[in-house]
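Exercise (ungraded).
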Amino acid sequence: MSIILDKLNYVYSPGTAYEKQALGDIDLVIGDGEFIGLIGHTGSGKSTLIQHLNGLVKATGGGVYYNGADIYDPDYNLKELRTKVGLVFQYPEHQLFETTVLRDVQFGPKNLGLTPLEIDLRAYEALKQVGIPDELIDASPFELSGGQKRRVAIAGVLAMKPEVLVLDEPTAGLDPKGRDEILDQIEKIHDEQHITVILVSHSMEDVAKYVGRIIVMNHGRVAFDDTPENVFAHYKELEKIGLAAPQVTYAMHALQEHGISVRTDVTTVEEAKNAVLAAFRGWQR
Amino acid sequence: MSMLNSDNLTFEYIRRDEEGNVESITKALDGVSLEIKKGDFVAILGHNGSGKSTFAKHINAILMPTEGTLYVDGMDTREEEHLWDIRQRAGMVFQNPDNQIIATVVEEDVGFGPENLGVPTEEIWKRVEESLKAVGMYEYRTHSPNKLSGGQKQRVAIAGIMAMKPQCIVLDEPTAMLDPNGRREVIRTVRELNRREKVTVLLITHYMEEVIHADKVIVMDDGKIVMQGTPREIFSQVEKLKSYRMDVPQVTELSYELKRAGMPLPDGILSVEEFVEACGRLRQSGGFGE
Amino acid sequence: MIRDITIGQYYPADSLLHRLDPRVKISGTLLYIISLFLVKNLWGYLAAALVLAAVIRISKVPFGYIIKGLKAVIILLLFTVCFNLFLTSGTPVFEWKFIRITKEGLYLAFSMAVRLTLLILGSSLMTFTTTPNELTDGMESLLSPLKKIHVPVHEVAMMMSIALRFIPILLEETDKIMKAQQARGADFETGGIIKRAKAMIPILVPLFISAFRRAGDLAMAMEARCYHGGAGRTKMKPLHYHRRDGLAWVAMAAFVALIIASRKF
């Protein structure tokens, strides 16, 4: 189970005055069960890249292989791929259209031509996974709060039972608590369902807290691809491409520069706390 | 001198069923009393649905209080004859940058407000130039807003308000739909305007790092003001903030956690510099030698 | 792709055509359309096409960019051509089973195709070279006599200009919603006409909701900026006739004369 991107290139409006290389020579292997953070400033090619993963956008060069099969093979079933690689767009609540929450979540499974029983089962399960209480399933999706709408929209993709879940900024516009709730739920789904999750985010703090691997995009190319510790160690290069490391990483480097020696390969509050406490106990001795 | 003065401001949404009977009454604002002085930079924090946007819409007389009063620069918002004066003096910037730009050329959009106020043509051009320069978007004056980034669009929207020569700008989650660079751009612009042009700023947000430079922070929950004070006073109360679905900057949380674990750090550390300084002092003093 | 529709958009450039008074451009476009229907023979079409080509050249809008706008109406164009080609009676030139093409049909199909193409190119050239605000101002000024009979001219003009501003935004949004529904297994490409029409619901509902939300937001933003209709409003860019506008009128009169003259050939 893996996605392989091989020398992937994508050029907008080729052959016209508006020609623009959106992706250049992307080589990536996305393994089974990974939790990946995809970061990059606006226009770095992140959104274009994820639309290649389920065949919504066709590369102008190179190939995409899903579980070893070439998705650009004329016989390849792209519709099936779209169910395997679930893509949650930015502000997904804007795609809700049905009269009730349940019916909206059933839309995906219905398109798969499943039996009514299976459609129901999947919809209920998906709604449960995102934490929508039972009393809301017959409500109109448009009466829900912003955070609830977003979860229903995510459930709409989960009900397809994807093997890979790609989320484009799932927390945009939510308040801090709403943000943590959604990310915790996604982490839980990743752990319990053993699916691959790719999280596109602008928040370095969020990415550092949840993912095991970070892919940094810049000008349509992969700039870094490593663990959070290793990627954020390059915080100075990240700044040059309009990004940053989590605030605690800076705090540790600043301590180090002031002659207080602490571990600097720190990306979360928890790790920073342990690093400083270790140094503090050193002074007390 | 007070720019805004609200006394026991209350606003109720009444939901009716199909027969017109009252189904439920929601108090979106519940007895909000506060005063904002001219020239201040005030931030209102609160989770989605806490009533902060409803409050903002009262300042512009888009909504009218069910109970209580709100004075904008000494004018009661309920009095119809002050409506246009109030809207000119307290300009408003909204969340979605696309949905508040009216024209298809940047300079024409900035001119929209003054046109509505009946400002003479020459004066409009002068104001448009000044406002676009003040937000650093003058070189984009002939561009189409569709081609700008989110942060640039919001700066154009701010220029559109500045061209009306307001005394106060109310920004209702202006950065919620922007990326980190766009957010920084907008906040920097707003701080500049506050500092240089002495415009009163009321910034509504749920991004903590945007409020650490404010003169005063107000936290709202369930339609009420639940905390107010300087950023340091507010961010000293990490647990209380979290109970209102809010957060604190990472370094503030780190200092708080370290303090709980026994390190004698001061409350309400807001920046990396303050944190490093506090740790440095701690190492030297109190017998904690290396 | 749906985003390629360029009709009704403004193309910023610095050209004589961009600087012309919008009232001249609107009247000119109308005159051009009327004269297209006055054309009787090939010479007339040739003249109309050449003049348009020259004006496009002056406008500095890339030719390819204008042609792209045609793609959106190609179905309409083909439909008109087929309709005229197969359903006009007269002298047959080609017959096969039930298909019958007549000489008159050929000519009608050709002239309709040319007329429509020139009409679309001509009117899109106007929107390419005139900002929606100018367009609104021009319309408002041209229609102002109607104010006397209580037609809300300013409001209608404002509505038009806002519609133009939001066309590209809503097109992009449509593209996004389509992709999002496709990611949920929606299929817009296969099936009969009913199935396809039904497949539009998951696109149309979110699109309408979004359009209404935007409209609400925009109305609020306009009110917050003291918009209260046309009364008491001043203009940032008031309309003034210049020498070039007078010259344009003369050129337009010459063009109409040319077209009328071409009928005699």
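Further reading is listed at the end of the chapter. For now, observe: Chain C touches chain A through 20 residues (CB under 8 Å). Residues 1-130+239-265 of chain C form one domain.
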